[in-house]
Amino acid sequence: MNIGDRIRKKRKEKNLTQSELGKLVNVSSQVISNWERGYTGLSHDDIAKLAIALDVSTDFLLGNDSKNNLPKLTPKDERDIAKDLEKIISSLDNPNEGYSHFDGQSIDDLDEEDRELLKAALETSMKIAKQIAKKKYTPKKYRKNDN
Question: Which of 21-30, 55-64, 88-97 has the lowest mean pLDDT?
Answer without folding.
Answer: 88-97
